[in-house]
Amino acid sequence: MRLCALTVLCSGLLVTSGTAQADDRWLIVPISSSADAEWMESAVTQARTALIEQGTDVWPLDEAAARFETESSAPATTLSEHELERWMSLSSAGVNDLAEGDYKKALEQLNVAQDLSRKAIEELNREPERARRVFDTCLYIVRATLATESESRARAVARECRRLVPRAEPSPYMHPPVVTDLLSQIDALQAKQTGELRVASSPPGCAARLNGVFLGETPVSIGDLFPGTYRVQVECVPAKRGRVHFVTVGAGRTERHVDARFDDSVASRSFVHLRYANAADEQAHRVADVLLIADGVGASAVVAVSMSAQDTMELELIEVAAGGSTAPAALAR
User: Fold this and answer.
1) What is the pLDDT of residues 266-283, one digit of tens each?
2) Does the domain at residues 81-190 carry the CATH identifier 2.60.40?
3) Which of 16, 36, 197, 231 could join 327 via S-S bond, C-beta 3.0 to 4.6 A?
4) 11-15, 59-63, 197-201, 292-296: which range is least confident on average?
5) Distance, CA of 318 to CA of 320 (rounded, Å)
6) 81-99 and 128-148 are packed helices; what angle lies between their axes, rounded to 10 degrees?
7) For 195-263, CATH number?
């Protein structure tokens, strides 16, 4: 009986839609301003099933979440104690292999450590000493690559080292001249191709991090960045990790503005959803926030799903092309 009611109401939504086409891809976003959010997953699954039965193309939940995290923002990566210890162990083992002249084995160990660095660079770089170790580990790969592969490959690795840890300097006496000289050559060649990134936020005065490295309080700029993709975080609450925004920097100036309030409200693991501290915040921001999600995913319309009472689910069609026009409906669970 619950599914029948949903089907009828979704049909009504389709009729009231003025601009969305049947072959456009819609997105379903659950919204809550209460502590109880256990209803979300089942409600979204039910609504998606009913919409598909009506002939509407709807984003799969996992694909939409992955797209949002790539195009907009993602939760900060976390590292377990085991993963951190493994990373440090691999780095140390690689250094020992270098000292013994076993460059092939060193490269194997260090490349695994580098994979972990790429995965969780914003977490590893939060502590300055650990960030330096990330940079040193990367330069150890440069050394092993020079000994086992081509110089062009070593140069590519050196450029990645510069992107991974902005503003980093190698530890003294840890790298031979062949490595430090190569790094200096890379810096000189890239001098005219580096870019500048300016990070601003609402509200201003929040901590800004680039690949985990603290830059200062927003608005803040950093120059001499090697072209590539970086991870930007804005943190207004010191104890809370900011969501990660992937920003591509080229030659010239790149700007990124981060809405800390929106970052605090959106979540994207399993499926994209919005959680507000209270009903007033939800009422004030839900439509604008849904449009931001639709832009990040690439949806033509969003069906916002919320629970207004214990047994009543509300559906609200929010059309992107119409600037957020809505069509409400409700159903009995």
Assistant:
1) 999 889 999 999 999 999
2) no
3) 16
4) 11-15
5) 7
6) 40
7) 2.60.40.10
